[in-house]
Amino acid sequence: MFSFHGLGSTGDQQRDLSRFDELAEQEGFIAVFPDATNLPREGNPCNATLPPLTGAEIQWNLGAGSLQYCAGVDDVGFVVDMVDWFTTHYAINASEIYSTGMSDGALFSYLLAFNLTGTFAGIAPVCAPMPWGFANLTAPPITVILMMGTSDPILSYYGYGGTGGNVTLSADETIAFWCNIDGISNSTVPVETVWGATSSDATEVHRYIYSGGTNGTEVILFKVVGGGHTWPGGVLYSPYVGAVTTHIDGSAYLWKHLPPQKSLLTIRTSIGGGATTPGTTTFANVNSDGRYVSFYPGSGSHVVNLVGTPLNDAFEFTNWTGDVSTIANPNAANTTITITPNGDYEIKANFQLKSTPPPSGGCFIATAAYGTPTAKQLDVLQAFRDDVLLKSAVGSRLVDFYYRVSPPIANFISEHNFVRTLVRELLVDPIVRVLEATGNMWRN
């Protein structure tokens, strides 16, 4: 797996962005992170045509306009030499060599598909539609996976522009081009999967799979609605590049779809706990909200141990949800799931706050603030707790949580007269006055 960095970046930075090195250790492939040449601007006739971007002197030779082009840097030949070296020194399966990259590295992956025909089983550009100048070239059928954010400020999803005057096709035109190369009819309706927005991530991910290409090739688009010039699940490396989606892990899904297509087990958790898989290693990038492991087709059934562990004593495991038909016991924290590599599995470990009866008295913090459990203000707070909060599931959870965290806070307040006065006059008294003024509403 060759993973090429973006403009102004390095192989080490691409490794840290994609975490393909960690995924390679888990899945048993070789990840390669080459460095582009870093050329001085002075004296180079292409200096005047560089885009106004920091680090533009470091990029892959995509043709006219770069320092590398004027210097005659042979990046395609560099890749040929690397492929030959790894083939000589390692037991490489020649049918499973791939190219992916970020931004400028993604553009380079397109170039390699045209110039090194037959070398790569698939390319997976991230954050870059295809340059319009490549649209007149031809290539043999190949699996192509494009991940692209609709709010990318550097290379526009919609093409024809972007910072630095980059001129590309749109993402949709790029997909149509490669469908034509692969012999996939323009009337083909793709299979769509959607990962919707959540309270913590406003992006949406739409995956469109165009199947039925020559020699089993596919063309796949991951359209990240609201996503920026970012690697899905990867680190947000700059405040100026837009949002990172956490709904999918870009590296895990690229590996899944590069041929041969693999089955993917995704494990997510709710607030209040975590999940482990003793005996099975899982992968997650820094901003991924799930953990992943893949299984090759034809490898038989796999039994994966599952352990749901509460975050602390305040939480308890409830159940596993999602694709639970092959989970031995969806209601047990320690169980197993059986994976048959003919489809994907996505499961979630769910946790909740333990249910505990509230104390018969009033509020710990208010009691500490007033210095006595008989203050009449406590009656108002207790009535609101009993008549409003405890009559709803959400309110009950809030009460449970409060009674778990408030005792040490109340002890601190009771031991410091100045703090007691501040809490009473600035917090508790105002709350009581509001509850008294609105009593006719919430008591009914």
Tell me about this structure.
The chain is of the alpha/beta class and 444 residues long. The protein folds into three domains: 258 residues, Alpha/Beta hydrolase fold, catalytic domain (Rossmann fold, 3-Layer(aba) Sandwich), CATH 3.40.50; 93 residues, Sandwich (Immunoglobulin-like); 79 residues, no CATH class. The protein contains twelve helices and 14 strands. A seven-stranded mixed sheet has the order 1-2-3-4-7-6-5, sandwiched between helices. A hairpin with an 8-residue loop joins strand 6 and strand 7. Helix 8 packs parallel to helix 10 and helix 8 packs across helix 11. It is elongated, with a radius of gyration of 28 Å. It starts with a strand and ends with a helix. The relative contact order is 0.08. About 1% of the residues have low confidence.
Q: Remind me, CATH topology of the largest domain? A: Rossmann fold
Q: What's the arrangement of strands in the largest beta sheet?
A: 1-2-3-4-7-6-5
Q: CATH class of the largest domain, anyone?
A: Alpha Beta
Cα Rg = 28 Å
Order of helices and strands: EHHHHEHEEHEEEHEEEEEEEHHHHH
- What is the number of helices? 12
Cα distance, first to last residue?
A: 65 Å
Biggest sheet features: 7 strands, mixed
- Give the count of structural domains: 3
Please give the number of β-strands. 14
Mean pLDDT score: 91
Please name the CATH architecture of the largest domain: 3-Layer(aba) Sandwich
CATH-defined superfamily of the largest domain? Alpha/Beta hydrolase fold, catalytic domain
Category by helix and strand content = alpha/beta
Poorly predicted regions: 162-166
Q: What percentage of the residues does DSSP assign to strands (E)?
A: 15-25%
Q: Residue share in helices?
A: 25-40%
- Overall shape: elongated
